[in-house]
Write a structure and sequence with these properties.
The chain has 401 residues and is an alpha+beta fold. The protein is built from 14 helices and 13 strands. The longest helix is centred in the N-terminal third of the chain and has 22 residues. The relative contact order is 0.13.
Length: 401
């Protein structure tokens, strides 16, 4: 029995519409409007690197050019419409999802118990009660506020002192929550003082949690394999997602579709019954050129992005400089529904300058005068967002060879 086929053009269109990248990046980006945007795209990944702007800020700016970082800070720290925790990585999420994270907290307790004794220095378990007593008595604390008498790390990024490890354990298991950030340093407080009461309610059943995780992921992605559903929130196992797909297929709640990849091959996926018709009826994404974060929700699944857009991307932060193919932190550049290249740029705020080292067009992308002008306009916008008054180009910045 044949199954419906989704063309590559229709698949890209559906996926980009679900991710807020199909319309022009205009409109309000604060308060309830910003919260609705984050709810629409599911989550915003947090990353500390700030060569131009931090990942979470660039993700939102690429969808709404009126966005400013202080608007997100208000939603997180004052309005409490969002919270910060893990999906596949550290992320900012709508607070109404918090009850589902209670399943993650329960799993984390067992996982951390098994692994952290091997990964971290001894003594952190002895700090649980001490840290909690201090937070209850003194209010929110950062890792700089605890462990002043403990030996400091000399062993690298993950060699935390015991009190820092205790804070992270208590956060990952749900006892503490992130009340805000000082710069990029987390501020921890008791969860019941951070998460509004309506969202502290009962933990959903295992069945309800599984159904939410798979159903919501499929809604966000438009079409997906069971593995992609499991990976979206990192909330259920691949085996659980496979069983959910089989059961939903048997009930007629999802259908199988053949999604056409960028290279013309087909990949069998699941979708809601209306997805194919919806994809074919959607207006094409606007032909706007925009600079994306490497951690954009549309691209963070590198294998899916490669299949759908024909765009092979690997971040080279941890690659020795001499071995990098492109650069330390390179930004994908999208035009309409096509990824046209990658950009190496860095903001030097003390010099009021965004420096562009290189732009590499993707194979088959011609950089005529009109497209180059659109790229330069996008770079002017990016400079303003990064609080830089001008753009400075390296002599050989346009790498056409």
């Amino acid at each position: 029995m044949s199954i419906p086929t989704l063309s590559n053009t229709a698949a890209r269109s559906l996926f980009l519409h679900r991710n807020g990248l199909a319309e022009a990046p205009t409109g309000p980006a604060k308060g309830a409007d910003l919260a609705a945007l984050i709810d629409r795209i599911g989550f915003v990944q947090v990353d500390s690197i700030r060569t131009v702007a931090r990942a979470h800020d660039m993700i939102l700016w690429s969808r709404r050019h009126s966005y400013r970082p202080e608007n997100l800070k208000l939603l997180l720290e004052k309005d409490r419409l969002l919270f910060e925790h893990w999906t596949h990585d550290a992320s900012i999420l709508p607070v109404h999802l918090f009850p589902h994270w209670q399943h993650r907290f329960a799993r984390a307790t067992d996982l951390l118990q098994e692994n952290w004794k091997r990964w971290f220095r001894d003594g952190y378990e002895d700090q649980f009660d001490t840290v909690l007593r201090r937070i209850k008595a003194e209010g929110p604390l950062t890792c700089s506020d605890v462990g002043q008498d403990e030996a400091r790390s000399k062993g690298g990024w993950w060699d935390w002192h015991p009190s820092k490890t205790a804070l992270e354990w208590l956060w990952r298991t749900g006892v503490l929550s992130i009340a805000g950030r000082d710069g990029f340093q987390k501020i921890y407080d008791l969860t019941e003082r951070v998460i509004p009461d309506p969202h502290l309610g009962p933990r959903p059943s295992e069945a309800a949690h599984l159904d939410w995780a798979c159903r919501s992921a499929l809604g966000q992605l438009g079409f997906a394999t069971s593995g992609e559903l499991a990976a979206y929130w990192a909330a259920v196992t691949p085996t659980e997602a496979r069983q959910w797909c089989a059961d939903a297929l048997a009930r007629g709640e999802v259908v199988e579709v053949a999604v056409t990849n960028a290279d013309g091959s087909l990949r069998r996926s699941f979708a809601f019954p209306q997805a194919v018709d919806e994809a074919q009826a959607l207006a094409p994404p606007v032909p706007r050129l925009r600079i994306l974060s490497p951690f954009d929700p549309a691209l963070r699944d590198r294998a899916r992005a490669e299949r759908l857009f024909g765009f092979h991307y690997r971040i080279e932060v941890f690659v020795p400089e001499a071995k990098r193919a492109y650069g330390y932190y390179v930004f994908p550049v999208m035009e309409g529904d096509r990824i046209i290249g990658r950009l190496d740029a860095k903001a030097f705020r003390d010099e009021d300058c965004l420096r562009v080292r290189a732009f590499w067009p993707e194979p088959g992308v011609a950089m005529g005068k009109a497209r180059t002008a659109r790229l330069e306009t996008a770079l002017d916008r990016l400079a303003r967002f990064a609080d830089c008054g001008r753009v400075e180009y390296a002599p050989d910045w346009l790498r056409l060879g």
